[in-house]
Write a structure and sequence with these properties.
Number of strands of chain A: 12
Order of helices and strands of chain B: EHEEHEEHEHHHEHEHEEHHHEEH
CATH class of one domain in chain A: Alpha Beta
Distance between the termini of chain B: 30 Å
Largest sheet of chain A: 8 strands, mixed
CATH superfamily of one domain in chain A: P-loop containing nucleotide triphosphate hydrolases
Largest sheet of chain B: 8 strands, mixed
Helix content of chain B: 25-40%
CATH architecture of one domain in chain A: 3-Layer(aba) Sandwich
Strand order of the largest sheet of chain A: 6-7-8-3-9-10-12-11
CATH topology of one domain in chain A: Rossmann fold
Radius of gyration of chain B: 22 Å
Strand content of chain B: 15-25%
Oligomer: heterodimer
Strand order of the largest sheet of chain B: 6-7-8-3-9-10-12-11
Structural class of chain A: alpha/beta
Number of helices of chain B: 12
Helix content of chain A: 25-40%
Chain lengths: 338, 342
């Protein structure tokens, strides 16, 4: 049994406000193995980015991790002091964000930014440092890296900038890379190039990748497993092939049906009525029940847990025996509004 | 869908737009810089029949939004003209005539967070075209019409009292659509109407737009970078690259048998949701800087079929047929297709 690079157990993230405590992440658990790409997909407000931010310890106060544990290669990291966490970020966890222009400092040359990152996390200095930086640039597919080393970010195109950000994320050979919407700001043709590159790099460096995106297409191309998030919870998690071609949870089904297909004729798209609930009003029981086409008795009362079904895990009463109305356990209304 | 006999509702002729992107005058004088121009759109000609959807696809910088703005009259073209019902859009004409023309054209923008005035209630946003074009005589009549429009796009007439920030992104786009329909237009230009929305909300909006088209016989010009969305919405599709139309064909023909190497590349780059394990050709390069476009066919630096002629001579849009088809299925601007090399 290989030890997972990242292990998240029962994570709960809260944002206290004057009126109520908003629960952005509620009881989320997952593992990522070395060299594995876990896709995390969901619509805006599902809590996918908050999950990423919680792992790197950058939840903005007053938001806080209110429960659960996060392990990086077996060591707990969610309770570390800020200084220790800073040493982990960039070294053991690399990060790639959506907009490559805001991840790079416009006033510094690409080479300076890269060598600074490498020098912070390794003992390389002088010529060896420069050599390593150029090797990284060439690895992420920047043509003529010796020449581009002295360029500023504005001299690069969007795709080339995202390659530089990838080089920065990989500079210290991290165990885990968190990529939050890495291709969303890019054109389709460039998006395909960046996905290919990320997959290749993950394999070569044996790094685990948490790929956060709203785009099922990107997940289908890049991920090994996928976790579907809804209202701060994972509703379905499993091998990407199974989840994409045979989704189990009614939300995942709706999501897949709502994506226009290339071979599709001019017929109607599947519609999920309504929209993602606000954090102030997460429905009781299964949070999807007010929008669910297959809602039945237990859904508004009992919260379904993730349980194995076929090759995946799904949190839905359709697949598991539901507790009867007045059975042994009272309804658990965790995360609901009061 | 295209009735060959009826005259098209919209006709663009040699539409072109050049933007001046020179540095300020003093900088130019001090540093001895030349003036710089971007040819955002060049030599675009197309027609849209009544009740038809023409989609324009392309990557950023291809000029598709500039075309949309010229077609609705927000940006004057440098060359060429747009005709709506054979009436020139940009030529000199009397104010009353221009008003009548404007009423029949509406636009839905990409970002519903930016296109609605945050200080106006939804009611006033939707009522504005009705008042501006004096389409209703009295207050109760306006109120009835606005209520009807809000219900038409799937909102409640009571929602009219709310401000834009009280709506979700999808609901805001519904308000934008209700406003566009308020002047009873014949032609609606949609510039990336769903790219700011989540997929499930996108599905709701796309379905709504299709229903409204069927119900009111609307004609759409649909601008998008998303090929799957375009496939779902359009009857015909034009592919743009660096300001020029490189291929235009019926939607199913374009997806079944793309002719231009750029169209093929775009289709290859779309992520594979069917998990069919389809072999994808790696896409090379990026869109060049439009300030300094390549000579000849602007796609030649990325094209696997480019030869000497492609590097020097601009290919014209010519009729081409899909493999196996007898009649021409569309227009393609490619020397390799014309010479039968691909």
């Amino acid at each position: 049994m290989t030890q997972p690079v990242l292990s998240v157990r029962n994570l709960r993230v809260e944002f206290p406000t004057r009126r109520a405590r908003l629960v952005a992440i509620d009881d989320v658990s997952f593992d990522i193995l070395p060299g594995e790409v876990l896709g995390m997909v969901g619509e805006s407000g599902a809590g996918k980015s908050v999950t990423g931010t919680a792992i790197i310890g950058l939840i903005e106060p007053p938001g806080r991790i209110a429960g659960g544990e996060i392990f990086l290669s077996g060591k707990r990291i969610d309770k570390l002091p800020p200084a220790a966490m800073r040493r982990i970020r960039g070294k053991r966890i690399g990060m790639v964000f959506q907009d490559p222009l805001t991840s790079l400092d416009p006033l510094y040359r690409i080479g300076e930014q890269l060598t600074e990152t490498i020098a912070t996390h390794t003992d390389l200095r002088g010529a060896a440092l420069r050599e390593r930086a150029i090797a990284l640039l060439s690895e992420v597919g920047i043509p003529a890296p010796e020449h581009r080393f002295d360029n500023y970010p504005h001299q690069f195109s969007g795709g080339m900038r995202q390659r530089v950000v990838l080089a920065l994320a990989l500079a210290a050979d991290p165990e885990l890379v968190i990529a939050d919407e890495p291709t969303t700001a890019l054109d389709v043709s460039v998006q395909a190039q960046i996905i290919e590159l990320m997959k290749r790099l993950a394999r070569r460096h044996r790094a685990a990748i948490l790929l956060i995106t709203h785009d099922m297409g990107v997940i289908a191309e890049a991920a090994d497993r996928v976790a579907v998030m809804y209202a701060g919870r994972i509703v379905e998690i499993g091998p990407v092939r199974d989840v994409v071609s045979a989704p189990l949870h009614p939300y995942t089904r709706g999501l897949m049906g709502s994506i226009p297909k290339l071979d599709g004729a001019l017929d109607r798209l599947v519609q999920i009525p309504g929209s993602m609930p606000r954090l102030t009003a997460i429905p009781s029981g299964c949070p999807f029940h007010p929008r669910c086409p297959r809602v039945f008795a237990p859904c508004p009362i009992h919260r379904p847990e993730l349980r194995p079904q076929a090759k995946a895990q799904v949190a839905c009463w359709l697949y598991h025996p539901a507790p009867s109305a007045q059975s042994e356990k009272p309804a658990t209304l965790r995360g609901g509004s009061p | 869908m295209t009735a060959a006999s009826a005259p098209p509702l919209v006709r663009a002729e040699n539409l072109g737009r050049i933007f001046d992107v020179s540095s300020p005058w003093l900088t130019r004088m001090l540093e001895n810089l030349p003036r710089q121009f971007v040819v955002a759109v060049a030599d675009m000609s197309f027609e849209i029949a009544r009740n038809e959807t023409l989609a324009l696809v392309g990557e950023s910088g291809s000029g598709k939004s500039t075309v949309a703005k010229m077609v609705v009259g927000l940006v004057p073209p440098t060359t060429g003209e747009v005709f709506i019902d054979a009436m020139p859009m940009h030529g000199r004409r009397r104010a009353a005539e221009r008003r009548r023309l404007r009423r029949r054209i509406q636009m839905v923008f990409q970002d519903p967070y930016a296109s609605l005035n945050p200080r106006w209630r939804a009611f006033d946003i939707v009522a504005e075209p009705i008042r501006a074009f004096q389409l209703a005589a009295s207050r109760p009549e306006i109120a009835a019409r606005v209520g009807e429009l809000l219900r038409l796009v799937g909102l409640d007439s009571a929602d009219g009292g709310k401000y834009p920030h009280q709506f979700s992104g999808g609901q805001r786009q519904r308000i934008a659509i209700a406003r566009a329909l308020a002047s009873e237009p014949a032609f609606v230009v949609c510039d990336e109407p769903t790219s700011a929305l989540d997929v499930s909300v996108q599905a709701q909006i796309l379905n709504l737009m299709r229903d409204l088209q069927d119900r009111f016989g609307l004609t759409f010009l649909f601008i998008s970078h998303n090929l799957a969305v375009v496939r779902h919405m359009a009857h015909r599709i034009g592919v743009m690259y660096l300001g020029r139309l490189v291929e235009i064909a019926a939607a199913d023909a374009l997806f079944r048998a793309p002719r231009h190497p750029y169209t093929r590349m775009l289709l290859d780059a779309v992520p594979d949701l069917d998990m069919s394990g389809r072999q994808r050709k790696p896409v090379e390069g990026e869109v060049p800087n439009p300030v300094d476009p390549p000579k000849g066919c602007s796609f030649h630096p990325r094209c696997p079929f480019a030869n000497a002629r492609c590097r020097s001579e601009l290919p014209p849009l010519l009729a081409a047929r899909a493999a196996g088809a007898v009649a021409p299925t569309g227009l393609v601007a490619c020397h390799a297709v014309e010479e039968g090399r691909i």
